[in-house]
Amino acid sequence: MRGMVVWFSGLPMAGKSSLARAACARLAPRAILLDEDELHDAIAHAPATDEPAFAATTAGVAALLARQGFIVLVAASARRRSEREHARALAPRFLEVHVATPLGGGAGREGHGVFFESAAAAGPEIERGYEPSVAPDLIARGGRDQLALDRLVERLESGDRA
């Protein structure tokens, strides 16, 4: 299996990390998970307030690992479409999985340190900064979409060219 980057995009708390973790478990040991919150903790020079620099750093690390033959699963919003397109341009192969969850869909979940404490409380402010993908390679309906997970794993295992 050749290396590639799979970028899970979507609103904060949409379920990107949950879906990426499930895919990583199914694809082990060929897959590596780069989770946005964990990366913020590990990369000291990319604070949460500098989102474009963080997205570029994440894209660079993901592409580096993909060129070494890994399937790199990136669970990160990358709020700007241009940030995700930059990641696509760097990667040897790239798939974008958009995790579609309505605003407030993650309100019952424990919040993440990088984003607002409550998606519902932040309201349209979260949506305003996020540019949805025009044509993602796959759409998942939340972080527990088993059908989307099965389709993604099947696509990756079949060696689908992205």
Summarize the structure.
With 162 residues, the chain is of the alpha/beta class. The protein has a single domain, classed as Rossmann fold (3-Layer(aba) Sandwich). The protein has 7 helices and 5 strands.
Verbal overview:
With 162 residues, the protein is an alpha/beta fold. The protein has a single domain (4-157), classed as P-loop containing nucleotide triphosphate hydrolases (Rossmann fold, 3-Layer(aba) Sandwich), CATH 3.40.50.300. The chain is built from 7 helices and 5 strands; from the N terminus they run E-H-E-H-H-E-H-E-H-H-E-H. The protein has helices at 16-27, 36-42, 51-67, 81-90, 119-122, 124-128, 146-157; strands at residues 4-9, 31-35, 71-75, 94-99, 138-140. A 5-stranded parallel beta sheet has the order 2-3-1-4-5, sandwiched between helices. Helix 3 (51-67) runs parallel beside helix 4.
Strand order of the largest sheet: 2-3-1-4-5
Number of helices in the DSSP assignment? 7
* Share of residues in helices: 40-55%
* Rg estimate, integer Å: 15 Å
Number of strands: 5
CATH topology type: Rossmann fold
Reading the helices and strands in chain order gives: EHEHHEHEHHEH
CATH architecture: 3-Layer(aba) Sandwich
Ends distance: 13 Å
Strand fraction band?
15-25%
Name the CATH superfamily assignment.
Answer: P-loop containing nucleotide triphosphate hydrolases
Briefly note the structural class of the backbone.
Answer: alpha/beta
What key phrases describe this protein's structure?
single chain; 162 residues; alpha/beta; Rossmann fold; five-stranded parallel sheet; 7 helices; 5 strands; 15% strand
